[in-house]
Amino acid sequence: MGTGLIVIWFLFSLIYLFLREKRKPVRILFLYIPVILLLMFFNPLIFRLAARYMGNEILYRILWLLPVTVVIAYSCVLFCGNLTGKMRGKAAVLAVFLIVMSGKWIYGNEYFSKADNLYHMPDSVVHICDAIEVPGREVMAAFPLELVQYVRQYSPVVCMPYGREVLLGLYDEVCEVINADIIDLKELVPLTRERMCHYVVLSEEQKIKGNTEDYGWEPFLETDGYVVYRDTEVPLEIPKL
Amino acid sequence: MFILAALLLLVPTVVGGLAAGMDSGIMQNRSAVLFRWTGGQMILWAGFQVICVPMILAQRNFTEVVVLYSGYTAAMVILALAVEIRRRKRGQTAKRSGGLFQKKDRICTLLWVCAAALLLLQLVQAVRLTYADGDDAYYVAVSSITENADTMYLKHAYTGGGTNVNIRYGLAPFPVWIAYLARVSGIRTVSVAHVVLPAALILMTYAIYFLLGRRLLAGRERYLPLFMIFTELLVLFGDYSFYSAANFMLARSRQGKAALGNIIFPLLLLLLFMMLERISEQKKSRGADWILLCCTMTAGCLCSTMGTFLTVLLVALTGLCAAVCYHDWKVLLSVALCSIPCGCFALLYLMA
């Protein structure tokens, strides 16, 4: 729920409903239940018990049961509706102003960006996966960290030696070497071969120590700032369909 | 695309005919279509949950789920059409009531235009913008793998190796439902998850808010557009926390937990509100009302394993409050019966 003013408006709205709303069904659902839920959530005993079975990290979802949006919107309407004449319009404008000032514009979130395509995946992932996919079988490819979370959303037949878990802190040797400032092929190639990587995707900007051709890596594709290498030492049999 | 539109809009609306008897008041106005749409989706989601979870635990093929669920959907459509024909023969069709646009009320019309513009903005942004969320690397990948490999939760989503069913995820197969939509429509799974579904679910969320607003503002419908504008602004300016339901709604709509927070919980509030009104008016509650509530709770289990516990918590608390406030203790028995499917899924979760 955050700690913004929206929480304050929600509490004010509950008080307003307590004073003005007479209908029992409304009072039960939008006043008593939220209060009981808040008391439960902030009760250390109940919190500990719930955390034990549900897990600490997702317990905040109990707060989703609080009808914050409906309670604030309804209270605002009720408040405006109880005024007369021009005051009604002024109160509505004030409520809009308070909501806008208290919240944060969702599309201003840094994780939003214009979609590259109708898959909502980076163009680089689409182009690389389309190029390395082989009909009738899976392929193994190592990707730079920034692409890891998209690859298997777009193409379930492209497998990876490491996945999103490395972004969550899990150590992986291939990932460590491949995402270093200077990639040492002497170190990387045995690791990717051990994991049977048919392809290795590197950023064009990454510096490479060693000659790729000496290690049996053939440039396969250059696209969107990435170079895809095919490791000829790792067999890739194409099944007859 | 036509198939997807039919699966997400038309089929639930037809199936929702089974839920239309929930409240006679709903039948007498234009909200009937929205109520049918949302109610129908709950009946379908509940069915999917009941069919899919045992199949996942038994490690059966996804194609079998597709066949069984398609059969269930077809059966529900036929049943709903039969009920509709019977209803029409009895003359119980929806009556048209006064429009939402009050005559000669320019301000009301202007407010509706604003509300519609805000909604359109969100739908356009859902298609135009992408949100980079790490959890998609699991959920959307599971959908893609399921559709492609014909297995459910038996491949590692992040890397592609073989794995065992993780019960925490297997009990809430919302990604498998997305795979079903992709399989039946022929549209690539990633597009269904990231583009089509968010638009449909955002629309459904506001449909529920509209229905809730209409109930809350009964007799004062001219304030409904204002209620919708406030609601939309609270969602649009809901990025005050990474964990707010509004953030999940617009940024991570394709994830089951977003549907739980923004569709299941508000719809449960609507259904409970309608039931409390009936108790308040000393009308006898009907079995159909409780069945729809039960379907919605089961649909909550499909969205997230947390839904299993939270839907029961909300309904149980409401039942307790109703029992105390109205001295109607029988309501607790109905609440307990409604919670049986959720209880079963919770038991599976706790046993795992």
Which series of helices and strands of chain B comes N to C?
HHHHHEHHHHHHHHHHH
The structure class of chain B reads: mainly alpha
Largest interface (CB < 8 Å): A-B, 79 and 84 residues
- Helical proportion of chain A? 40-55%
Return residue spans of chain B where pLDDT drops below 50 for at least 5 consecutive residues: 24-28
Strand content of chain A: 5-15%
Order of helices and strands of chain A: HHHHHEHEHEHEHEEEE
Q: What class do helices, strands and sheet pairing of chain A give?
A: alpha/beta
- Give the strand order, joined by hyphens, for the main sheet of chain A: 3-2-5-8-7
Kindly report the average pLDDT value of chain B. Answer: 89
Total individual domains of chain A: 2
Number of helices of chain B: 16
How many DSSP E strands of chain A? 8
Spans where pLDDT lies below 50 across 5 or more residues of chain A: none
Structure in words:
Chain A has 241 residues and is α/β, with parallel strands linked by helices. Chain A has helices at residues 5-20, 24-41, 44-54, 68-81, 86-102, 123-132, 145-154, 173-178, 185-194; strands spanning 112-114, 139-142, 158-159, 182-184, 199-203, 207-209, 217-223, 226-231. Chain A is 46% helix and 14% strand. In chain A, strand 7 and strand 8 (226-231) form a beta hairpin. In chain A, helix 4 (68-81) packs antiparallel against helix 5 and helix 6 crosses helix 7 (145-154). Chain A is elongated and about 80 Å long. With 352 residues, chain B is mostly helical. Chain B has one domain. Chain B has 16 helices and one strand. In chain B, helix 3 packs antiparallel against helix 4, helix 6 packs across helix 8 (174-185) and helix 13 crosses helix 15. Chain B starts with a helix and ends with a helix. At the A-B interface, helix 2, helix 3, helix 4, helix 5 and strand 1 of A face helix 5, strand 1, helix 6, helix 9 and helix 10 of B.
